[in-house]
Amino acid sequence: MKILVIGCGSIGVRHIRNLKELGIGEVAACDTDANRLSIVRDNLSLSEVFTDLNNALTKGFEAVLVCTPPSTHIAIATEALDHNAHVFIEKPLSNSLDGIDAMINQASKKNLVLSVGYNFRFHPGLMIVKDYIIKKEIGSALAARAQFGQYLPDWRPTQDYTKSYTTKIDLGGGIILDGSHEIDYLRWLLGDVHDVFCFARNSTNLETETEGIAEILLNFESGCLGEVHLDFVRPGYARDCEIIGERGVIRWDYESGYVHRYRPDAKEWQSIKVTGRNEDMYIAEMRNFIASIRGIEDPLVTGKEGKKSLQVALAAKESASSGKVVKL
Questions:
Q1: How far apart are CA 171 and CA 151, in angstroms?
Q2: Contact predicate 49/30, CB 8 Å
Q3: Domain boundary residue among 112, 142, 171?
Q4: How far apart are CA 315 and CA 198, in angstroms?
Q5: Within the chain, what is the greatest distance between any pair of CA atoms?
Q6: Residue 90 lies in a domain
Q7: What is the pLDDT of residue 20?
Q8: Nearest 5°: phi and psi at 199?
């Protein structure tokens, strides 16, 4: 299998490394930055690199990974589909809904896989949480809280954060879009969202055009209420969630690696320690993408699923701007 990774920033390099670890065919890279491309070629021993996307797409790649800023995703993915390549798009799917339905329909008509990079659906801790919910271990979910926070300059230590797309409005940056994993995995756990309300603020201590703090309220179609905190101003790192049900509580903490479940009948907490590397969920999503191309599995995060999570994120941005509840 010939695979082209477009965009050699931190996530593109990560996917190249993992694809090579999996031993899946030939991996090539494309980036407009020739210097960055040469570093990737030398460090990861790539046989082919390209600075021109149009040239790269004529080389018969079976699959393409789009790892560029969100505002460029749809145009690049559509072009890859035009060349009959299966497509994996990093999250978020885009920074607007423009062109998404046409792209999804194009992939469907050509029977090509279209997958979106929400890797936390592959995290073993959240998979345990998902299993608890499916089995109604805590009854119906009534409320949920999820949070992610980390100081932006620490995200990509080798890059000047002011040059990151996260700081640029026109590239699709901001904590709501870039931190939309929490929105996506809560949707995966609890179902679709009906209403969204959000407060968001720009950071006062970082040089950004975009919001750095967001408090998002979600009203799920199931009746569950959700709260998502996102920021890129926090010293240190935090990522966790809690789901309150009729017959118990589930807590997941990314850093400790534990999933806790409270059983009111026994009046005690039960805990499961998740082991493994942080990289495992990224490798698992690549395995799923390749298995989907081969017809062995279905993609866990389809284009339609990526669109739904984007709709919630965009509704949060709209609500923060208008000060009103946004219905989906």
A1: 20
A2: yes
A3: 112
A4: 8
A5: 64
A6: yes
A7: 93
A8: -110, 135
**Owning domain of residue 223:** 120-275+302-327
Residue 69 has pLDDT above 90, yes or no: yes
Kindly tell me if the per-residue pLDDT of 158 is higher than 80.
no
Shared domain for 192 and 153, answered yes or no, is yes
- For residue 322, what pLDDT band results from cuts at 50, 70 and 90? very high
Q: Tell whether the model's pLDDT for residue 195 goes beyond 80.
A: yes
Tokens linked to 173: 């940056």
Residues 249-268 have pLDDT tens digits of: 999 999 999 999 999 999 99
Q: Which three-class secondary structure string do you get for the chain?
A: CEEEEECCCHHHHHHHHHHHHHCCCEEEEECCCHHHHHHHHHHHCCCCEECCHHHHHCCCCCEEEECCCHHHHHHHHHHHHHCCCEEEEECCCCCCCCCHHHHHHHHHHCCCCEEEECHHHHCHHHHHHHHHHHCCCCCCEEEEEEEEEECHHHCCCCCCHHHCHHHCCCCCCCHHHHCCHHHHHHHHHHCCEEEEEEEEEECCCCCCCCEEEEEEEEEECCCCEEEEEEECCCCCEEEEEEEEECCEEEEEECCCCEEEEEECCCCEEEEEECCCCCCHHHHHHHHHHHHHHCCCCCCCCEHHHHHHHHHHHHHHHHHHHHCCCEEC
